[in-house]
Design a protein that fits this description.
- By secondary structure, this protein is α+β, with helices and mostly antiparallel strands.
- The chain is about 35% helix and about 20% strand.
- The protein contains six helices and five strands.
- It has helices spanning about 1-30, 40, 70-75, 90-95, 180-210, 210-215; strands at about 55-65, 130-135, 140, 150-160, 165-175.
- Strand 3 and strand 4 form a beta hairpin.
- Helix 3 (about 70-75) crosses helix 5 (about 180-210).
- The model is unreliable at about 210-235 (pLDDT under 50).
Length: about 240
């Protein structure tokens, strides 16, 4: 019996070790650059200088059949009390966020400025705020006061491919105060960020492409994201 128990433990440890090796060797390198090209990984982006010598970097990207000016309104209205994050709301609510995703352009949330927080109700000094804003080109988010665990930025860039399509590139850069902070954050963030960010990329793509023709060629009397009735969203309690 003892030998059998030892064999089971050894087999379990070997399986865990093999799984960890496979994740670090193949899965993690794939998901850290999901959808991104070699050129996009090497390209300098606005906000890269805000986090020096990052210990954690992701580059993820997707092609949208829409122009930057058709994508940009969906980006600037993101946040709590605004358009949401176009990802898994149930996960965000578990993290204490009070939001809902919208499928409409909200004109009252189109005037984003440097220094604005992503939550209309935030009083948190560590909240994500706009650090760099180049309309139609890039949006860089990060805390103006680095949180206790380290510092991070989220850069969103729009790169036209041709007259009808655009690359949406998302880059996160993090530097941690200590190894323990890094292990603590990444134990939750590593795969979780992929799932949330991938859904966000797909959510922006769906919304921007859905309204492309209505925004390009509005017909008389047609309802578009710009003209349909709207009201300021309320956060669910």
């Amino acid at each position: 019996m003892e030998r059998s128990a030892v064999s089971r433990v050894a087999g379990g440890l070997a399986a865990v070790g093999a799984g960890a090796f496979a994740y670090l060797r193949w899965v993690r390198p794939w998901h850290l650059r999901w959808g991104a090209t070699d050129e996009e990984l090497a390209r300098a982006m606005p906000g890269d200088d805000l986090v020096k010598q990052p210990q954690y970097v992701t580059n993820r990207a997707i092609t949208l059949q829409a122009l930057p000016e058709q994508i940009w309104p969906w980006l600037v209205q993101m946040g709590e009390g605004g358009g949401g994050y176009y990802s898994y709301v149930w996960v965000e609510r578990m993290l204490g966020m009070r939001l809902r995703n919208t499928d409409r352009i909200l004109p009252e949330f189109q005037q984003l400025k440097v220094g604005d927080p992503l939550s209309v109700e935030t009083r948190d000094e560590y909240a994500m705020r706009v650090r760099v804003l180049e309309p139609g080109r890039c949006l860089v988010l990060g805390s103006s006061t680095p949180p206790p665990w380290g510092d991070a930025t989220w850069t969103i860039g729009l790169y036209p491919l041709d007259a009808h399509s655009t690359r949406l590139v998302s880059r996160c850069r993090c530097r941690f105060k200590s190894t323990w902070h890094m292990l603590g954050v990444l134990s939750f963030l590593d795969l979780g960020q992929l799932l949330m960010e991938r859904e966000w990329l797909l959510g922006v793509k769906t919304r921007a492409e859905r309204w492309e023709h209505a925004m390009l060629e509005p017909r008389e009397g047609a309802v578009t994201p710009w003209t349909q009735p709207h009201r300021r969203p309320t956060c669910p309690s």
